């Protein structure tokens, strides 16, 4: 079943309002609106003051005056843009280039031209004259402009430079991670996004729901099912609505390509959370539970689906399942004591013991089920991953959340995806949620 449409596959964050940020954070810092290029600027200046070359001043001074008047004379802006290249050509010294960069930024703002703004920022950075406390901010702006220009390799380079300059912001890491998705490099994007989320959690930063959804949207495009589990468990943990639980469960099922036994244990979790959302969820639950093996559970699932308006009682598949389950429930439940006696026998096969635990679990007797599953786990030929999963479910139903956590934590192999989802809910219950 393709559930891609319910997952976010777009950018990870909204576009930053760069013009406003630049006008407040950079241009004013550069003194672009002041007579920085007056002919006598360097007379009597300290050794730390910028030293502009005469040729640059001849071009920059009148241009800056025109830029300062552009707000009241918007018709002059196209002419200002034409003077950018001559200005850059006249900038021969590092101070010239830094000053030219600020002026180009101002012209770009006046013209609402982000390419010019980016060019100005890069001139400032490449000049080597940017104040240390501005380098991080300048690289942040350069990163966003590079993103808008689809120059994704430069985005990552600018983000790295901003971080090296001490600019720490999880949104910046998100911007870099998103570049891989834009390049259709899904595995690298997922790896980068996972790292960002781990950093955010470690720093106490709330993880945005969109980040999880972006990870879920890309998880099916990689052969590594661990990504599906990571983003699904995170979404369920931080934004555990019934709809999000259903989405998380669907991704784990899809990315692991689970069969009926694993599907059943995921759908059992969804059922306990009222997170069976679609007709397909209920039909899959009935099929995985099997009216012959788990008649009481199938009957309960069918009744719930019909009451929720997701199933129609007259549908042949549903009607047959209900008929079979209804016909077996009384006899199967009556047979449980004898089945348990056989399971506790010295010569009982491991499959019989585990099956007896399943029978008790299906009839909502979790304490009995847990006892039998523990017997099965003592056998050397037991399917530990399966039985630990079922033991965890039984202990969860019995209210033993510490025991359930231990059982789910012991699950190894492909079933870890199932266990991870259950562990989220066990933690919720243990925490009083």
Describe what is shown at a glance:
The chain is an all-alpha fold and 433 residues long. The chain has 23 helices and no strands.
Question: Which terms would index this structure?
Answer:
3 domains, 433 residues, elongated, 23 helices, mainly alpha, 0% strand, disordered N terminus, Serine Threonine Protein Phosphatase 5, Tetratricopeptide repeat
Fold and architecture overview:
There is one protein chain. The protein is mainly alpha-helical and 433 residues long. The chain folds into three domains: 7-13 and 134-243, Tetratricopeptide repeat domain (Serine Threonine Protein Phosphatase 5, Tetratricopeptide repeat, Alpha Horseshoe), CATH 1.25.40; 31-130, no CATH class; 244-430, Serine Threonine Protein Phosphatase 5, Tetratricopeptide repeat. It contains 23 helices and no strands. It has helices spanning 18-30, 54-69, 77-82, 84-90, 94-111, 114-127, 132-148, 152-164, 170-182, 186-203, 209-219, 225-238, 242-256, 260-272, 279-289, 295-307, 316-334, 336-343, 350-362, 366-377, 384-397, 401-409, 416-430. Helix 10 (186-203) runs antiparallel to helix 11 (209-219) and helix 21 packs antiparallel against helix 22 (401-409). Mean pLDDT is 90; it is low at 1-6, 13-35 and 38-46.
């Amino acid at each position: 079943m393709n559930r891609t449409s319910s997952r976010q596959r777009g950018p990870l964050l909204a576009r930053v309002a760069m013009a406003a940020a630049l006008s407040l954070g950079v241009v004013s810092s550069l003194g672009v609106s002041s007579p920085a290029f007056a002919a006598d600027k360097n007379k009597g200046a300290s050794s730390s003051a910028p030293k502009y070359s005469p040729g640059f001043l001849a071009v920059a001074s009148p241009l800056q005056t025109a830029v300062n008047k552009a707000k009241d004379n918007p018709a002059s802006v196209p002419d200002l843009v034409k003077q950018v290249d001559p200005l850059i050509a006249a900038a021969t010294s590092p101070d010239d280039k830094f000053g030219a960069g600020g002026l180009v930024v101002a012209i770009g703002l006046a013209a609402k031209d982000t390419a010019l703004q980016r060019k100005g920022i890069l001139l400032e950075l490449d000049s080597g004259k940017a104040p240390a406390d501005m380098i991080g901010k300048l690289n942040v702006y350069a990163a966003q402009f590079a993103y808008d220009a689809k120059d994704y390799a430069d985005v990552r380079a600018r983000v790295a430079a901003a971080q090296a300059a001490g600019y720490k912001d999880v949104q910046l890491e998100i911007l870099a991670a998103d570049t891989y998705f834009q390049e259709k490099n899904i595995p690298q994007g997922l790896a980068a996004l996972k790292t960002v989320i781990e950093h955010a959690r470690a720093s106490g930063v709330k993880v945005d729901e969109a980040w999880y959804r972006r990870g879920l949207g890309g998880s099916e495009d990689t052969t590594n099912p661990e990504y599906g589990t990571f983003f699904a468990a995170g979404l369920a943990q931080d934004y555990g609505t019934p709809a999000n639980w259903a989405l998380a469960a669907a991704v784990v099922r899809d990315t692991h390509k689970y069969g009926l036994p694993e599907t059943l244990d995921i759908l059992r979790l969804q059922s306990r959370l009222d997170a069976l959302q679609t007709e397909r969820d209920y039909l899959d639950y009935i099929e995985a539970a099997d009216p012959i093996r788990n008649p009481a559970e199938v009957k309960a699932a069918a009744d719930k689906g019909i009451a929720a308006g997701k199933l129609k009682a007259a549908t042949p598949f549903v009607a047959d399942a209900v008929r079979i389950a209804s016909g077996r429930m009384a006899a199967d439940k009556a047979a449980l004591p004898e089945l348990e006696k056989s399971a506790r026998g010295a010569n009982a096969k491991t499959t019989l013991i585990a099956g007896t635990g399943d029978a008790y679990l299906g009839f909502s007797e979790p304490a009995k089920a847990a006892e039998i599953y523990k017997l099965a786990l003592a056998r050397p030929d037991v399917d530990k991953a399966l039985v630990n999963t079922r033991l965890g479910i039984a202990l969860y139903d019995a209210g033993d959340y510490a025991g359930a956590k231990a059982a789910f934590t012991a699950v190894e192999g492909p079933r870890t995806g199932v266990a991870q989802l259950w562990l989220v809910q066990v933690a919720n219950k243990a925490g009083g949620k």
